[in-house]
Amino acid sequence: xxxxxxxxxxxxxxxxxxxxxxxxxxxxxxxxxxxxxxxxxxxxxxxxxxxxxxxxxxxxxxxxxxxxxxxxxxxxxxxxxxxxxxxxxxxxxxxxxxxxxxxxxxxxxxxxxxxxxxxxxxxxxxxxxxxxxxxxxxxxxxxxxxxxxxxxxxxxxxxxxxxxxxxxxxxxxxxxxxxxxxxxxxxxxxxxxxxxxxxxxxxxxxxxxxxxxxxxxxxxxxxxxxxxxxxxxxxxxxxxxxxxxxxxxxxxxxxxx
Length: 257
Hints:
Layout: H1 2-14, E1 20-23, H2 36-44, E2 49-56, E3 62-64, H3 85-88, H4 108-121, E4 127-132, H5 137-146, E5 154-156, H6 159-168, E6 173-174, E7 177-178, H7 184-191, E8 195-198, H8 205-213, E9 217-222, H9 229-238, E10 242-245, H10 248-255
Parallel strand pairs: 1-2, 1-10, 2-4, 4-5, 5-6, 7-8, 8-9, 9-10
Antiparallel strand pairs: 2-3
């Protein structure tokens, strides 16, 4: 009996699911963030999710850019929301990356089309980790549904936006932020989330266990100085379900996904 229990324990430890991987802004280090070129590289790595930042142009088109202004990553300047889509498309999104001068700001539709076409050709699917920066729920959901990406993708945003998204699309996989254990019950009650986007610096094994006991997954960002091997290993030991990173190839290598 003792030997049987030991074998059962070993089997359980060896079958713990490894964290899935999300490429933050599609980053792989080989192309500018939030561009079709970097998304193509991320797809080739077979990541589980590609994180994108969705904003709305002056004429209501959904575009992908992290910052509220064009200044840092493009050859333009000023708030994205003040510029019509046709003018945004004239800019380079390859600022600071040699050889990517012709890279453009992608629309959400272009990104969804790219990922949808990839999924049709590959058994391991990639979905979208949608950071809802400045967008209303209806057009966002309509485009994702058009490309069969709405039901398996995840949506991050502030709690009020996620609540409105749930009204528009009840099946949406919501992913509110989580900073402390005391927030878990309240956020589950109000949002019925699919996952929490947990702050790694305050995340504990007890928080992961508590979320899992309520059938909610735990995602965490390992970015900047946190984007390193020992943190990938620690997150995996805690039972984190997904690691978001700018170095997906290193996470794959470390965890041997």
